[in-house]
Amino acid sequence: MRIATIDVGTNSTRILVADVEDGEVRPLFKTGKVTRLGRGVKETGRLSKEGIEATVGALKEFKAIVERFNVEKVVVVTTEAARRAENAEEFLNRVRELGFKIDVLSDRDEAELVFLANLKVFKPKGKAMTVDLGGGSTEVVYGNETSVEFLKSLKFGVVFLYEEFGEDLVKLEEFIRGELLKVKEEIEPSQDFTVFAVGGTITSVVAMEEKMEVYKPEVVHGYRVTKHLIDKWYKHLSSLPIEERKKVVGLEENRADVIIPGLAFFKVFCEVFSKESLTVSEVGLLYGLALREALNG
Question: Does domain 123-285 match CATH 3.40.50.300?
Answer without folding.
Answer: no
